[in-house]
């Protein structure tokens, strides 16, 4: 048993020693590891320190970079802001300068308009005093039919095809370059120039004051002059075609001077119903140098043109004895009457104009008032008189152009009898003559032959006679050849200074009409030179001031 106990003790001793050794070895290993760890810690600390250092330095670099860039950007922003500020200030300065300039432009424009207005008033006054003929010029727009027979020179370009331009409301410029001829670059001045875009309403607004003059007792004549197709009938009446009424009723915006004048006349008259003058109308055409009364009716009461003559009264005034007058009481009556008679007017298609007027048309609107017996005008011996329809007058035998007709008494008949319905004399207060002349034309261009060629020849001769009369008047010649044509003979009183006369020159803007345009502008210029002394008013019908 003790031996067995000794073996176990040896075993456990050995075992303890063995474990002791293992523990020792482990402890040694631990020491070693601790040392290694300490070294690694040191290395790690060193590395971390190094990395931190590097990181710090790169962060500092980055920061410096950022700061640098920030500074750059900041200064750029400051520069940009300063630049923008400067621009803004410059814009503000320009804005205020532009504002000041706009204001001064407005003021200058107002002053200019005022001065222009004053100049116009003074000019009008001078025109009144000198008795000048007022001349307006209307340039019509280029129209499709201008293209159809356009000359080859201007066929490619519509711009160069126009030679007459409205520079401003008083000046026309004609620029005409003809190959092989000297350039024409000429300006003409008139009381008013209407460009192609100016409407019928604008034209009438300028003409309208003449109607006030009419009611103030002045005789007034408005005459459209120009080559064929230049817009005379359009200006006086409005657009028309063979199928439509001669005076347009529906296209109100396009109404010409005649219907607008009728409307304005009755409007002015209605302002003072107590002293309304009576209104009578005559319609006359001068065709192939003969005068036809378009209101005259034949024995069957059919309206037909009846030939009449102009005579000189004892007082030296020109009258058409037995001329038919009809009284009208409203614009509608006036338009119905005139429209019906205008259908009788001679028309003919030419190569230049499909609806060409072949006669000169003169519509006369006569205002009459019953005079007070002691009025100075009533004491004049040469007072023209109108007669009521129930006082028939002996008529001259009439040679009808369309019918040879005996004449039927019409509503009014000037110069026939001295008494009106009240038994009092009725005095012609004032006369408004509305004249739509036939257009001058070159037979070669208009392509007319036979009867139409004869008409053309009469038209051109009568227009030449009109130009001769104006030439003689402007040069103050002793003899004025009024009697060279029926047209000038009929219009002698008007041309000689008995009326405020407005000539509206109608011209085409097209190159192919340039020669006629220059002729018309020359005619207008000559007309402006005529000085006939101040027009005298007849007996004044009191009006309500407007
Ligand atoms: N200002 C304008 N605006 C639009 N169309 C116009 C104008 N002037 C004239 N016209 C047109 O031109 C054409 C010729 O005009 P208009 O009949 O008035 O000529 P005219 O001068 O009377 O010719 P004629 O002497 O041959 O009778 C018409 O078709 C008319 O409608
Ligand atoms: Mg015409």
From TrEMBL:
Residues 373-424 are annotated as: Disordered. It is found in: Cytoplasm, Cytoskeleton. Residues 132-530 form the Kinesin motor domain. This is Kinesin-like protein. Residues 373-383 have a biased composition (Polar residues). Keywords: ATP-binding, Coiled coil, Cytoplasm, Cytoskeleton, Microtubule, Motor protein, Nucleotide-binding. InterPro entries: Kinesin-like_fam (IPR027640), Kinesin_motor_CS (IPR019821), Kinesin_motor_dom (IPR001752), Kinesin_motor_dom_sf (IPR036961), P-loop_NTPase (IPR027417). PROSITE patterns: KINESIN_MOTOR_1 (PS00411), KINESIN_MOTOR_2 (PS50067). One of its GO terms (biological process) is microtubule-based movement. Pfam families: Kinesin. One of its GO terms (cellular component) is microtubule. It comes from Equus caballus. ATP binds at residues 226-233. Belongs to the TRAFAC class myosin-kinesin ATPase superfamily. Kinesin family. GO terms for molecular function: ATP binding; microtubule binding; microtubule motor activity. SUPFAM superfamilies: P-loop containing nucleoside triphosphate hydrolases (SSF52540). The keyword Nucleotide-binding applies. Residues 9-43, 105-132 form a coiled coil.
